[in-house]
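Take one record.
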Amino acid sequence: MSKKHSTLLLFSFFYIWVNAQQFTIKPGEVYDSIPVVGAGESYSIFLPKGFKQQGKWPILLVYNLQGKSTDQLRKLTKLADREGYMLAASHQVSDSLSITDNVLVTGRMIESIKALFPIHLGRVYTYGRGINARFANLVPVLLKDVEGVISDGAGLANQQLISTKNSFHFVGIIKPTDFSYPIMTLDVELLNRLKFRNQLLLEEIVDSVDQEKEHEATLGRALRMLTLASMRDQYTPRDTAYINQSFVEANGQVQRLYAKGKAQRALQWIAAWKVSFTGLNKNQDWSEQEKEWKKSKLFRSQKREEQGAFFKEEILKEDYIYYLQEDMEVTNFNNLGWWNSQLADIAEFLKSSNVREQEMGYRLKSFVNALLDDNLELMETEKNAKEFDETLYLWMLKTLTLPDSPIAYLKVASLSSYREDYGTALFYLEELLKTGYEDRASLYQLEDTALLRITPEFNALIDRYFDKGSRYQPK
């Protein structure tokens, strides 16, 4: 084969050649080893079942910098198939690389895909969830080939990089219980001032078996919004039936929210949907209803309550940051009691009859844990992290913020044993066992506890909580 790249359609399979190597791609399935010519890199690809070599196809670039991009891609195939999107995920993007290097990897992948598949260059989008969303929303800032982003669970990575010279479509997905929610509302305000097309999609279900189902529905709406925007921009032919059906579903969604007493959330979704339907002759159907709802006592009280929660939350977050920094500077173990009282206050917020206060409680709980995780990650970069009192203090605090998670208790026991403070180690091990911890073997493998494990106190503890008893019985 003399050509570097060529394609051939045969029945429902596609045969592609990359450097004379043949690959068989079947629409509707994930193929996970397409090479990038000359780069020693590869990526996964998904083509929707209706894919043909004719026409131009939208594509969503999926990111997971922890090495699970293909796993994340597979979770999106059902939605991508329904909405007619290609998916691609690089195997080389990684949190061990710099932002610049990850962007370069992305650029090479896009060039490879352009050579092999008929993608629509005005409909290249990115997707990331959680921490990966922050990189995903940097890509359209740094690569002009990328039109927009679905930023799932995180706001803009760097507001300073946003420029009207390189605008893009931002679709943010967030739960009001996520500590990033207030930040994302500020991101949206910035994007509105700069006249960037943007939509903020709010999820409602908390701690429910239906959470993933709800999330899938929200992702489907996000993809639909991108498609509607492409019709408005005339990148895609207007499909009247698609537009009408989308409006019916969107209107049904907002009506259900309002009927459940969620006036503010209903109006926030109307604002998001209006961005999609502007120019498609649909928004006039909401105009009168929107005016009426905004005048309602329910909406005004909910909005006022949320603004009050945001104000109170900001003060508390500043306190948490200040006192944690101060505690670490002097290693104030005595201040664990203050933190315990703050966590008790958060627990009261979670039980509040005021929904906005409940949401604030969830955000504060997540914020404290994220604050501790950031500081622990920073401490772990130190050469002898376990030598520092700050490391021990942070893990002790973690047992208060996540009392049902065994990791923090085990870390405290290990670090205390390293310091030969066996009393503290035994205390935290017993607190762990009180939670119902049953992994007896892990207690005998815990780092730096060899001397602890031969003490009578440790063996008495094992005997008390495990039927099998201790390994070292006194003679």
